Structures are given as C-alpha cells and as structure tokens.
Q: What sequence folds into this?
C-alpha cells in the first residue's frame, strides 16, 4: 500500500535507424514501484502516419536477459517463469543518460519527471538530473558552447549579442517596471579627466546617470579661450566596466559613482569630484540600495561647501543645464527664482491646457491644491534648482498660502513669468 500509485516516469527514445526504413521514435517508460513492473508507451504527434496504439510493451516484469536460461530448458513448449529468471529490472537500472535494452530494443533515457528526480535523490543520492536535448526528429543535439564573436564597437553590447543568438535579431528586452518607477530621475556628477596629457588636464565634465535605463551621458561645459569646443562628449548609452566580456557584460551602476571614484569610459578615465545635492538626498532616501561609503563621501564633500545645483543656461540652450555654485551674493536668490520661472516658460507649459495637466500631475490626491512639497517635486522632475529658500520664495509668490496653492493661482503665476 505504501508504493501504490507511485510511478517512475522516464522519457526515452528508440533509435532504429540501423535497420532498413528505421527511424527514431519517442516513448515514455513507466516503472510501477508497487510490483516492479514496466510499461512502455509511444508518444504520438499529429499527422505522424501511425495508428493510435500507444502501448509498445504492456505492463509486466521485464528480465534483464530473457535468454539467460539453462541449455536444457525446453523453450519450444514451455514459457519462462520465475524459476528460470531471477534478475529483473529495478530502479537502479534506470537513469538519465542510460541506455536500457528491453526485448532487444535499446531505449535511451533522456529525461524524467519531478517525482522521479525526488525519488532518486532521496533513495540513491543522485543530484545530477541534466536532461539530454533531443530535437523533434529524435536526434540528440550536442550541447557545445556557442562561440561569441568579439564586440566590434558598433551599436550596443545588447544589440550585438542579439545578432549572435538568432538569425533574425530581436530587440533586447527592457525592464518596463524600472523605467516607470525611475522615470525622470537623473543623477548628475562633476568629473575631471585623468590624463597624462598636460593640455587636457583640468577639463571638467558633467556625467548624467539615468536610473530608468542605466544610461550615461557626458557633457563638457564650454570654456572661453580654452581651445576646446565643449558640448556633448558622450551620447546616451550604457557603459560596460573594463574587463567585462560580451557574453556577460557588467555595466556601471549608480553605486559605482562616489567622490574620488575612477570611471573608465571607452578608454577615457574620469575622476568624480562633485555631485548635485539631489544625488545626496536621493541616496539618503534609498540608503538600502547604496553602500554607506558612497553616501559618506557625498556628505563630506557637499557638507563643507556651498549648495551645488544645475541651473538652465541663458540663451537658446532650451533644456541644457550648466554646473554652477551658489555664492550667497546679494540678489542671487531673486535671480535664481526668475531663472526658474523663465525655465518653466521655456518648457512650453504656459498653454492653458498644459497648465491644467501640470497641476493635475502634481495634485495626485485631487484635493484642488498643491503644497510646497508638490512644487519641489515638479522642479525636481524638470531638473530645476530645488533648494529650500528657492521653493519658499516661489510658493510665496504663487499663492497667499504656500501650503495650499490653487490652480488659478498657479496659472496666474505662470502667465506672469
């Protein structure tokens, strides 16, 4: 009763190609533990041209060698019994990769079900259940490692890898959940180029790291009379760490950017020297995702110098931002507030319908009012300065109550910008 309804199931193949018109056919071998009987059933496929008779060998005890009998046994008139045969197939004779001969038919066992794996692990200590890959024609597929060609530098590593995996390349899969959760979050760092060439020493760069897709953009602010044009230094792309292979690339993550870190980007070395104040706030809010050393270096650097931010560049730069530092000079706060108002106007949100959508986008609770915190979040999303004194001044200019700003007050404020 203990072994009732407990059956070992193996998937096997009978290779009869040595005979004329022979072929490879798939079967299922059942071993009934209750009485040590074996049954072999054929796996039929649609339009295989065979009659639907699934049983090849009916359920019975099968001897390992039915011809191993005494020479005096009258096999012509008598059938074999347990007195003549004592060696039958047992669970020890079966396993993935083994070939068993049942009535002069050789069956290759290439896989088994989960119950069979658990039975062999519990009773025989077997741990290797790697299946043998069989194609639809019953031919064993050799599992040789694919040789991946070297990265040629064109496109991204993911795109080049897709060309090696399939004949018709498919676009790499994206993490859409991460893209939605981290939409609009950009961590900006200041870096200097580490180079032995004296003419390139002192070049400052702004490294922007987008959390939504882990892509990096490098921008070099223009410096007058430096002999260097400046502008975009690196187009938005994912950057692999030095020494990573095309098979298993290891890309730079936000944890790799800290004060003093050396970032090797396409044979150019950059030393992180500073960061935006928003980077420190973001890392402190998600401290479980960043090493303590990374956060501590930002605290030490940003804590002993004036507030650092990225303000929009005046002129026709549009959304382009340059690195600047607050000095605390008279009239600086008013100037920054005016620049934020001007940037909002340049972002084309002053149309009536756009203003309403912006208001509803930050008023998620549909209370009809927005607070200073909502205003700060809007500035962060638009990559504008969001220091406390700037937000306080903006909120006081927008409405009578800085914590309850209505849609009409926000509309009037933007129309006056």
A:
């Amino acid at each position: 009763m203990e072994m009732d309804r407990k059956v070992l199931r193996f998937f096997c193949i009978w290779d009869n190609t040595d005979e004329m018109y022979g072929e490879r056919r798939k079967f299922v071998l059942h071993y009934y533990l209750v009485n040590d009987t074996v049954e072999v059933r054929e796996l039929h496929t649609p339009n295989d041209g065979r009659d639907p008779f699934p049983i090849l060998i009916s359920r019975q005890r099968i001897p390992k060698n039915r011809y191993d009998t005494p020479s005096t046994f009258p096999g012509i008139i008598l059938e074999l019994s347990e007195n003549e045969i004592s060696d039958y197939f047992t669970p020890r004779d079966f396993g993935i990769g083994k070939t068993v001969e049942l009535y002069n038919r050789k069956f290759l066992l290439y896989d088994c079900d989960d119950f069979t794996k658990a039975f062999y692990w519990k009773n025989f200590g077997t741990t290797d259940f790697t299946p043998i890959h069989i194609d639809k024609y019953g031919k064993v597929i050799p599992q040789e490692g694919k040789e991946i060609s070297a990265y040629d530098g064109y496109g991204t590593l993911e795109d080049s890898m897709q060309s090696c995996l399939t004949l018709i390349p498919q676009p790499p899969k994206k993490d859409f959940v991460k893209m939605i959760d981290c939409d609009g979050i950009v961590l900006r760092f200041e870096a200097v180029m580490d180079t032995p060439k004296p003419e390139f020493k002192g070049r400052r760069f702004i490294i922007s790291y987008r959390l939504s897709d882990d892509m990096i953009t490098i921008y070099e602010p223009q410096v007058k009379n430096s002999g260097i044009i400046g502008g975009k230094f690196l187009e938005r792309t994912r950057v692999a760490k030095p020494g990573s292979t095309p098979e298993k690339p290891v890309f730079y993550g936000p944890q790799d950017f800290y004060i003093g870190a050396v970032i090797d980007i396409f044979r150019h070395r950059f030393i992180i020297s500073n960061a935006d104040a928003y980077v420190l706030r973001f890392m402190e809010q998600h401290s479980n995702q960043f090493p303590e050393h990374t956060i501590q270096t930002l605290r030490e650097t940003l804590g002993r110098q004036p507030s650092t931010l990225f303000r929009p560049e005046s002129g026709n730069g549009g959304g382009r931002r340059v690195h600047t530092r607050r000095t605390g000079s008279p009239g600086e706060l008013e100037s920054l507030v005016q620049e934020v108002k001007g940037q909002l106007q340049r972002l084309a949100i002053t149309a009536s319908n756009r203003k309403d959508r912006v208001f509803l986008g930050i008023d998620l609770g549909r209370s009809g009012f927005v607070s200073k915190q909502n205003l700060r979040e809007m500035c962060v999303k638009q990559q504008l300065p969001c220091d406390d004194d700037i937000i306080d001044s903006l909120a006081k200019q927008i409405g009578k109550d800085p914590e309850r700003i209505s849609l009409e007050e926000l509309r009037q404020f933007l129309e006056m910008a």
